[in-house]
Amino acid sequence: MAKQKFAKESITIMTEMVLPNDTNTLNNLMGGRLMHLMDISAAIAAQKHCNRIVVTASADSISFKQPINLGNVVTLRSQVTRAFNSSMEVFIEVTAEDIPARKKIMTHRAYFTFVAVDQNGKPIEVPELVPETPEEIEHFEGALRRRQLRLVLAKRMKPEDAVELKSIFNLTEK
Ligand SMILES: CC(C)(COP(=O)(O)OP(=O)(O)OC[C@H]1O[C@@H](n2cnc3c(N)ncnc32)[C@H](O)[C@@H]1OP(=O)(O)O)[C@@H](O)C(=O)NCCC(=O)NCCS
């Protein structure tokens, strides 16, 4: 297994057209359908990084700011931001395009976490991720803080062990 991989090696672009079966009664893309597409696109990015089977461990808060309309073309760009032991954080950006109207808007952003597992579902190590561009470095540096926050919220880490979070909130020991 490669010890290190570049962030760019995981870039995954997925494009879909919103069809009637994907929409609610207002002719907008259903949230659940969008989350399904996000999950698949992000899982492919995680697989590209580790060349293993991956499972979704968590999806950070996803807000639906802008509706995506019937007939729009949805593009999902996913990329691994950082790899830990067996887990990888993936950043997903969604854009919706009305091609005839020549309009394109960024509609959603989210972070998902995937864990690489063996055939028995047991977590296994993944290669380190090497960021190169300024954006990749920014995502990489913020990933530790986001990981600690999600693990504390999932009750998988004690708040007192979340050292990176303490440094942002400037919490000092009493
Ligand atoms: C994700 C899963 C493999 C973790 O297994 P586990 O036995 O709890 O393993 P560990 O406690 O050793 O954790 C393994 C990794 O998962 C990460 N993890 C576990 N739960 C997490 C969560 N809620 N959010 C983010 N990361 C999480 C841990 O931080 C750890 O990361 P690291 O190895 O990089 O340090 C296991 O919970 C699982 O199989 N869940 C179901 C996944 C699934 O079916 N998803 C699709 C349907 S929703």
Structural summary, described in words:
The chain has 174 residues and is α+β, with helices and mostly antiparallel strands. It has one domain: Hotdog Thioesterase (Thiol Ester Dehydrase, Chain A), CATH 3.10.129.10. Helices cover 27% and strands 33% of the residues. The protein has a 5-stranded antiparallel β-sheet with strand order 2-4-5-6-3. It has a two-stranded parallel sheet with strand order 1-7. Strand 4 and strand 5 form a beta hairpin. The protein is globular, with a radius of gyration of 18 Å. The mean pLDDT is 94. The chain binds coenzyme A. Coenzyme A (COA) binds next to strand 3, strand 6 and helix 2.
List keywords for this structure.
single chain, 174 residues, alpha+beta, Thiol Ester Dehydrase, Chain A, five-stranded antiparallel beta sheet, two-stranded parallel sheet, 7 strands, 27% helix, binds coenzyme A
Low-confidence stretches: none
**Residue share in β-strands:** 25-35%
Q: Rg from C-alpha positions? A: 18 Å
Number of domains: 1
Instruction: Name every ligand kind in the structure.
Output: coenzyme A
Report the end-to-end length measured between terminal Cα atoms: 46 Å
Figure out the total of helices. 3
Q: Briefly note the CATH topology name.
A: Thiol Ester Dehydrase, Chain A
**Inertia-based shape:** globular
Give the integer mean of the pLDDT values: 94
Give a short account of the largest sheet. 5 strands, antiparallel
CATH architecture: Roll
Specify the oligomeric state.
single chain
Helix content: 25-40%
What class would the helix/strand composition place it in?
alpha+beta
How many β-strand runs? 7
Q: What is the assigned CATH homologous superfamily?
A: Hotdog Thioesterase
Family: Belongs to the acyl coenzyme A hydrolase family.
Keywords: Hydrolase
Protein name: Acyl-CoA thioesterase
InterPro entries: Cytosol_ACT (IPR040170), HOTDOG_ACOT (IPR033120), HotDog_dom_sf (IPR029069), Thioestr_dom (IPR006683)
